[in-house]
Each structure stands twice: as C-alpha cells, then as structure tokens.
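Put briefly, the fold is written as integer tokens. The lines below illustrate.
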Amino acid sequence: MLKLVDVSKRFGALSVLQNLDLTVAAGNVLGVIGPNGAGKTTLFNIIAGAQVPSAGQVHLDDRDITHVKVWDRCRLGIGRTYQVPKPFTHMSVFENVMVAAVHGGRMGIRAAKEQAQHVIELTGLIHRLRTPAGHLSLLDLKRLELAKALAQKPRLLLLDEIAGGLTESECDTLLEIVKTARDQGATIVWIEHVLHALRRIATRLAVLHGGTIISSGAPDEVLADSRVKEVYLGV
C-alpha cells in the first residue's frame, strides 16, 4: 500500500533522512521506534505531505504522491494524529469531528453526521459530545485526535505517539480503539515510545536511527537486535 523509495530530507546542511526505503503492506501495523532526533516526525510529515523530500519518491497504491498536497493526500485516504493534540479548542467534540468528516472525508452533511456519531461512540467520547475541546482531559484529547482521523475513513492511519503521557489503563483503552480501526481495514504506521503498547498490536517494527532504518521485522526479533539495544534501549 505505502512505499517510500530512496527518500532523503535535508534542511540546509542538516541531513535528517538518508536514502530511506520503506514498504508497508495493506492491513499491516508497522511500529516505528527510534531515539529522539532520529527523523521519525520528518518521516511522518513526508508521508502525510506536510513536507516534500529532498530526493526520492512516496507511493500510495502504486501512485506517485511525492508532490501531492497534504489535503489531497487526506482525501486519498491518509489520516494522521499528532503527538501534541491539535483540536479547534473553541469548538465542541462533535464539531471537531464533523470538520474532519466534511473536509477530510469529503462527506455530505448527513453522511458526516452519521460518521461523526459513529467514531465518537467508538472512541468513548459520546459523553463529551457537546464539550468544547479546550476543556478535555489528556485522554479525551487523544481520543479526539483518533476520532478526527477515523472520521475521514482513512485507509492509511498515521499515529504519532498516541499512547504517550497516558496511564496503563488509559493506554489499554486507546489500544482497543486502534485494534478496532485495524480490524475494520485500516493500515497503520505508528510512531511510539511506549513499547509494550506497540508489541501488543504491531505486526512489524522498524527502527530509525540517524535518518536510516537500521532494523526491521517481527517485534521480538527487532528488539533482540544488538544494535537496536545499543542505540535505542541503551543496553
């Protein structure tokens, strides 16, 4: 479904990604881990269209989308969350999700209302339906990030540290939502530092270090890799 070919990204003299190749098959859940500064956020920005690579190509379903704008990628089926939630704070939960369904999912008002109601129930926010987003707890803000992304009916879902800052029980709640999205057909790429969350759902892990992928494969195999232990786990 998703393929990055020889992707590099430079900011002046600083090279953030270097000749990176990455393939994610439909239906998979790929966890992306790596130390701070490894290039994970830049990788997401390039997949989502917020940044254009300095070299290389991005393909979605064999279509070259390297220079496709972020809003058009959204309409092609790429949804994302942000590590720091970005709601419209003065708007209610329902209004936030409606914006995503109408403008991201290109739905009419009736279909958008049905989709918004569905994902708000799925993410456990029905009791916050009319609450302004600026009044939500961290867990509910994370749920709202997921609801907005899912409202677009994404085929490719990009999760950026969705479990960060949550308690174990709160993390369990979010994992159930992510599993439901996977079971409903979404392909997922997930940046995360909470390894126990990733290991419960990821089919593969990729470790990013110094702008390149140094290990990729089954989660247990990757975490047992001596180089991964050195650069990421500090062993």
